[in-house]
């Protein structure tokens, strides 16, 4: 599968690669696939999706299940079933097909317009009926409401054939000498035809009268375009009820609004070749126009190029699979091309695996490789002495350089650098020497950051490997080889601080274990400095002594923790004494303050208190707040500290609380007085 990219739009060519000849047996085809890598890697989306010589037209049925194509030689039509990914049937015809149309949802009703003025009808079983029209036909359209076929060709008349009555009706008389293309609007069924004089005539099928005339030849001539001869209409396509795209024989595409005589936009292909096909892509508001050399996709509002494709062979027809990003072309070659552009839409449901395939390719991007071609810059050409070839057919300009034949490149390189083989030979010898060195016993290369932690992990891996061999278990992945933890051994910001309080309290035996590792590190560094190739065992104590030491360490870990805590307290005392000395040595100088506008001066007490607090260390401030009761600090089981704060209340909050207290007291007194009065009244009634 070949991948190309233009304007950051990836295009996957699903028909790239060599095709096997039909006359080969299945056995020979399988043998070739085993031998040839290119044949084995190709993607054959639909089996035998090709014609014997060339293909002229390609269509998709309305239900999306069948793809039909016509070609030569001999003249034939082939139908491919997308659900089976293979050919369904093939029918040979008497003469070459100019164009054809699928009238039904599937392949059961097809109409062919042939070269010898013949119109051939096919049903599901095969050939059904054949008739002739008076003049040579070039295009036709089907009017669904009246079941009429409109034929245009080398005549000023438009012939009408009614399929319901089975007879020709009165033809439409036009002003044109000849007509090339025609189309019927799918919304209001307006019939439009493109003439050889560069005009578009619009007819109403209900009244059989002409309702409009557009002079496209005059509108296609702009300041930027260079036209030789009178442009005729070569392609025509409706989009919705109001838009219409017209292609000319000189390579321009004009987009019209039916309510205006002037085009909305004029797009030039700059090749001077007649436009063969026009398609509309509604999801991204694109127009896909094609001549025999290039397929261009551009925005219908701005005319800006979206992407383009240049197939190897000339293009005869383009078909966009509905509601997807798949594009098919009929070419001047046996193989019909299939392109998949994920930006335009998803893959059709019958080949949904293409989405997964392209996603995998995007996750693992590879450099684009062109078979038999080499990309070179202008500087490379000067080094090879081929700068004089710029502008010739041997170099093809592309982006900031050129493509040239790989054989010519190798010859020029041999001439420019005759000692290239010697360099290649030295490189191969060096690689073989490195391979032999890799088989020897190598030193353990430790990272620059966290060397002791890396050594600890290596030791633990060795123990786990021995344990897993005994138990016959799978080894777990190493942290040193894992990309997620790669930064921990490269970035110095992740260096473990062994002098921190938390580290020393959480690892009481780290000092003794680190001493052993430091010895090993020293030995390894000495061996690396000497450049020895075999790893020597470090001198040390026997395994029995080491095991006894480990047991002693396990017994005395509590004493180690106590020692560490004593050392930490002593260090804190020394730091406090140093800070007190610094505070005593510093002399206070008078300071002057400015009062802002709108503020009143109260006193220096608050500011002085705040300044004293700011000068004190965080530890002293915390102790002061502990005395006041606004802070509570406690040690956790892990060794860290936990602090709980009580927020200070502002003056407004205090005033509000005092007012609330007064209000509550007043309400209590009122309630007591009311209850006292009630009790007195009750007593008075009893006495009465």
Automatic annotation (TrEMBL):
Compartments in which it is found: Nucleus, Nucleolus
Pfam families: Beta-prop_NOL10_N (PF23098), NOL10_2nd (PF23097), NUC153 (PF08159)
Domain (Nucleolar protein 10-like second) ranges: 369-417
Record-annotated NUC153 domain positions: 482-508
UniProt biased composition (Basic and acidic residues): 648-663
Coiled coil start-end: none
Keyword Repeat in record: yes
GO cellular component: 90S preribosome; small-subunit processome
Compositionally skewed regions (Basic residues) per UniProt: 664-688
Record-stated family: Belongs to the WD repeat NOL10/ENP2 family.
Protein name: Nucleolar protein 10
Source organism of this protein record: Melospiza melodia
